[in-house]
Amino acid sequence: MNILLIGSGGREHALAWKLAQSPLTEKLFCAPGNPGIKNSTSVLADTPEDLANFAELNKIDLTMVGPEALLCQGIVDCFTDRGLRIVGPDRRAAQLEGSKSFAKEFMFRHGLPTAKAEVFDEEKEAMKYLRSQPLPVVIKADGLAAGKGVVVAGSREEAEQAIKACFAGSFGEAGYRVLIEECLQGEEASILALCDGKTIVPLASSQDHKRAEDGDQGPNTGGMGAYSPAPVVDEALWKILDQQILNPFLLGVQKDLLYFRGIIYAGIMVTADGPKLLEFNVRFGDPETQAVLARLDSDLVEVLCATADARLDQIELKWSEKPAVCVVMTSEGYPGAYQKGFPISGIEEAEKTGAMVFHAGTKIQNGQLVTAGGRVLGVTALGNTLRQAVDNAYRAVEKISWKGATFRHDIASRALF
Ligand code: AMP
Ligand code: GLY
Question: What global pTM score does this model have?
Fold first, then answer.
C-alpha cells in the first residue's frame, strides 16, 4: 500500500517508524516529515485540497493525519468526498478539539463526567462570573491555541489577566470565547482510543508531563515526556472509564451523527470523585504516542485501515508487557524564546543502547543535523520494568548533546513511588 502521513513532529516520526514495520507498506510519503524519518518521500503540499490532489495522483491507499489543525480545517471531508481513505474525524466532529465549548456541551449533553464550566462571549460577563467562583479557577480560550490557551489561576488577578488576554486577542479568534471552569485536583492520565463510529477500542494508557521543569514546575509545554502504561489507570479504573467515558462518547457520536473514524484522546483527571474529563483531542497525543506505539505489537497499517473502513469490531490490539518511557529533549528556553541551528551529536550512540530517537524539531543544514524547534528529540526506551525503561531512556539521553540541550530528569518518577 501507498501511505501518506501528514505532520512533522515526534508523534509523526513514531507513526512513520511503526507504519514502516508493516509488511503492507510499500511506499511511505510524509507531508512534510522530518530528517529522522528514513525511507520516505517528503511531500510539500499542506492544504486539504493539495494533499487530496497528491493522494489521488499518487494512488495513496491510506492517509493518516498527525496534527489537529488540518482536521479542524476539514481535511477528512475533503478526502472522503473524493473517495480517498483517511483516518480522522470530519470538520464538525473535530470541533471536539477545536472548540472547548463545543466539547463541553457534548460532555454535558451525553452525561460524561467533567468539570463544571460556563462559557462567555463578553469580557464583562466573564469578569462578573469570576467574582462568584472559588480559587483556584481555570480559564480557557475556546479555540486552538497550541497548548497555551489554558491558565490554572491561583489568584483572582491571574484569572482576570487570563480573561483580559483572551479578549484582547492574544489567541486571535480562538480567545474571543472563554470558558471559566472549576479546578479539579488529582492525577492526570491520557486515554487514547480508536473510534470508527460503531466501535471504540482503547489504546494502552499513558501519562505525559506538561510542565517544563522537574517536579511539575514552570510553564505548560506541549509535553516534556511520557510513559505507558500509567499505573493510575488500573483495571478498576478501566472499567469506570469504559462505562462513564468511552461508551458514552461512542453513544454521543452516534446520537449527534458525528463522522468520527479516528483517534479520540481523552485527557482525564482522576479525582477523589472518580475520573473526569479535562479535554478531548481528536488525534494522537505528542509525546504520548512515542511511548504508546513503542509498546504496540499489532500491525499499525491494519489497525488504521480498520479505523477508516469502520471495521474496528474485527481488530484486537496486542501490546508488549514492557513499559515505555519517552524523554523529550528541548532547546534551552522552551516554551519561551529559544535559539535554533545548534549541531546535534550522539544520536547513533544513543540508538546503539537500544533506544529509539524520534525527531521532533530538527533539520539538515549544510549536511549537518541541527536543532530547529522547541521540542527537538523524543528519546524512547522500553524496559522490563518502568524503572528499567526510565534508566534505559536516560542512558540514551546522556549520549546526545547540543548547545543548551534541556530535559526533565524526573519523567515517570511519580509512577515509581
Ligand atoms: P487542556 O488543554 O484542557 O487539557 O488543559 C491543559 C492542562 O491544564 C491540563 O492537562 C491540566 O493540567 C490543566 N487543566 C485543564 N483543565 C483543568 C481543570 N478543570 N482543573 C484542573 N486542571 C486543569
Ligand atoms: N501531550 C498533549 C497533547 O498532545 O495534546
Answer: 0.96
Closest ligand 2 atom to Cα of 147? 5
Ligand 1 in reach of 181 Cβ (< 6 A): yes
Does the beta carbon of 208 sit less than 6 angstroms from any atom of ligand 1? no
Strand partners, 276: 269
Q: How many Å apart are CA 366 and CA 379, to the nearest integer?
A: 24
How many residues make up the chain in this entry?
417
User: In this model, does residue 85 exceed pLDDT 80?
Assistant: yes
pLDDT tens digits for 47-70? 999 999 999 999 999 999 999 999
> Could you give all domains of the chain from N- to C-terminal order, each with its CATH number?
2-88 (3.40.50.20), 122-176 (3.30.1490.20), 185-314 (3.30.470.20), 324-416 (3.90.600.10)
What is d(CA 25, CA 137) in angstroms, rounded to the nearest whole number?
48
Pocket test for ligand 1, best of 112, 114, 116, 150 (most atoms within 8 A of CB): 150
Tell me the best of 221, 281, 293, 408 to mutate to test the pocket of ligand 2, counting ligand atoms within 8 Å of each CB and taking the most: 281
d(CA 280, CA 269): 12
State yes or no: pLDDT of 417 exceeds 80: no
